[in-house]
Specification:
- By secondary structure, this protein is α+β, with helices and mostly antiparallel strands.
- 20% of the residues lie in helices and 44% in strands.
- It is built from 2 helices and 17 strands.
- The chain has helices at residues 2-29, 201-218; strands spanning 36-42, 45-48, 56-57, 63-64, 69-72, 77-82, 85-89, 94-100, 105-118, 127-131, 134-138, 142-149, 152-159, 161-165, 170-174, 178-183, 190-195.
- The chain has a 17-stranded mixed sheet that branches.
- A hairpin with a 2-residue loop joins strand 10 (127-131) and strand 11 (134-138).
- It is globular.
- Mean pLDDT is 85; it is low at 12-29.
Length: 225
């Protein structure tokens, strides 16, 4: 009797363990509920899925997720939508989606210029934009523009508020503020210059597109006739 009971207990334990393992494996393999989408492309660009393998030509409605690299050709522009959050890439931009899932939107700008339009309060703490000189963490819904090249970077807040952080400095920016950041060679020191918002074509395009998009979202549909 004791042997039968022991055998039954062993089979029960094995069954429970196997079931738990299957559930865990299924959960680990589940795709994230939040992915991006290349909503629009003016010109041409490239996508490297998962940060490895060949680069393929960008196509509208392509999914974008963790590990993907996006590169736009000079003179081109692209729009990526992640739920209500909108990213706009200028020509000659290289951007990595380091993490994109239900918990985080973590981006890395290698070069070029990108804007982020954050509309939903719940996305604020989930979002970060990183580059060689530091990172931006929004502290409110709004619109943010970052450009990066060999000479340094410029961070601008078109609307909302954000906080810049690096190993050397951290400070907050409000709507209408822009800052130029330059790191001296061989030093951690950052030279910081506060300026007005840049009046370049990319910022003008971002502002115009955001205005159009916000107007479309806020305007109720016409009644059917």
């Amino acid at each position: 009797m004791n042997k039968l009971l022991a055998s039954w207990c062993l089979r029960l334990w094995l069954g429970v363990t196997l079931a738990a393992g299957m559930v865990a494996a299924q959960a680990a393999g589940d795709p994230p509920g939040r992915v991006g989408r290349l909503a629009d492309l003016d010109g041409s660009g490239w996508l490297q899925q998962g940060g490895q393998g060949e680069w393929t030509g960008l196509q509208r409605n392509q999914p974008v997720t963790s590990g993907d690299w996006i590169s736009t050709d000079p003179g081109s522009r692209a729009r990526v939508e992640i739920g209500s959050t909108v990213l706009r890439l200028d020509g000659g931009t290289v951007l990595q989606v380091r993490r994109l899932d239900d918990a985080r939107i973590d981006l890395w700008l290698q070069s070029g210029a990108v804007s982020a339009r954050i509309r939903q309060p719940e996305v604020i703490r989930e979002f970060s934009l990183n580059w060689a000189l530091g990172s931006l963490q929004p502290t409110g819904t709004g619109a943010y523009v970052l450009s990066q090249d060999d000479t340094g970077s410029r961070l601008s807040v078109l609307a909302g508020e954000g906080r810049f952080s690096s190993s050397a400095r951290s400070f907050s920016l409000r709507a209408g503020q822009s800052v130029e950041l330059v790191q001296q060679p061989g030093s951690r020191q950052l030279d910081i210059t506060w300026t007005d918002l840049p009046q370049d074509r990319f910022v003008a395009w971002v502002q115009d597109e955001d205005l159009r998009s916000d107007w479309a979202r806020d305007t109720p549909p016409s009644p059917a006739r």
